[in-house]
């Protein structure tokens, strides 16, 4: 959103270019070889390792760390990629502090876990920087599978199917692949064009044809796909954004946080990105944190995250919330928006304090206002309608444990489907597992 007379508080280049570049540098710089060896030596190599159970893709974490300790990061990477072909991205964006590292025995004993995420990045980067691909394509099966959605679930599914020898046609409505990894993650978590580099590396398996600018409902029909292909996998994500539900939410300066983050991800010059002087982000998840932190990094003077429930109900991890606070983001809980004020453009947003009551959240009778020239909505996304013949459950495509939908020959996974948490690593696991089931079904 460009600065204009209607939005006088939104402007670009609030900070010097060198400051912006420093602000958006790698959040967790990579380990070098010596640092990786030292970090790997802290692992107990547990036989019944709880970190494996805590990983949605069930990577054999003690094994790959032992391989790093033995001086073989290439073998470590193969161990990782066997379970998670997007292990490089997951090493950067997974909330390891609530998954594998929280379960680490060192965390329980000392309050300092083995740095599993950074070790995973060290191993996967070592292989990817060499341009090597550790898998070869299987013999052709003569089967063709359509994968709709080139996000984490679709990419993982497409790769596993190609590895099994099937021909895959990968569709995506966007002009580039990657989905959430390309368009929806804070820039400082994945720098240097890594998302696209990882996709290019993944495609080295061969057998994956890509067709961009084509999504369901935009010239692409599930009925037509089901007729043309032997199987269909849907990894279409959640395209719609929930309504704010406050009067005046159509004013200039109010926008979806996912669009704000996407602009950041696709820019080549941070100085061209406009941001408000006073920014309010509504939501309590990872998207809200990413939008709030990056607003501050762009030069916003005040950034406030407001969430309607208590802090312990926020879906963002405690680490992410602490990161936001360390960047100067104020976090307000127990309040929901009731009105956006301003003459054409937002100048204030009004909130009502709420508390949990017998009928859900109930207002306490107290209200307050925050100055705002930019309001970013991060209140969850939804599926824009049910694809033909599919049953929805809670606003998502209903699937069984294998990813099968209510329609024969159609599977689904990732954010668009019922199942696990809305995480990159969970989407990868669901895409991978659906591909294995599709393979079995096609060869039955």
Question: If you had to describe this structure to a student in words, what would you say it looks like?
Answer:
With 444 residues, the protein is an alpha/beta fold. The chain folds into three domains: 33-129, Alpha-helical ferredoxin (Fumarate Reductase Iron-sulfur Protein, Chain B, domain 2); 144-239 and 383-443, FAD/NAD(P)-binding domain (3-Layer(bba) Sandwich), CATH 3.50.50; 242-377, FAD/NAD(P)-binding domain, CATH 3.50.50.60. Helix content is 35%, strand content 20%. It is built from 17 helices and 21 strands. It has helices spanning 17-23, 33-40, 50-54, 61-69, 73-83, 87-93, 100-103, 105-110, 116-129, 152-163, 180-183, 194-202, 222-228, 257-266, 286-298, 318-326, 424-443; strands at residues 10-11, 144-148, 167-172, 208-212, 215-216, 219-220, 231-234, 240-241, 254-256, 275-276, 278-282, 302-307, 330-333, 335-341, 348-357, 360-371, 374-377, 381-382, 392-393, 396-397, 410-412. A five-stranded parallel sheet has the order 4-3-2-7-21, with helices on both faces. Strand 12, helix 16 (318-326) and strand 13 (330-333) form a beta-alpha-beta unit. Helix 2 (33-40) packs across helix 4 (61-69), helix 5 (73-83) crosses helix 9 and helix 15 packs parallel to helix 16. The N and C termini lie far apart (53 Å).
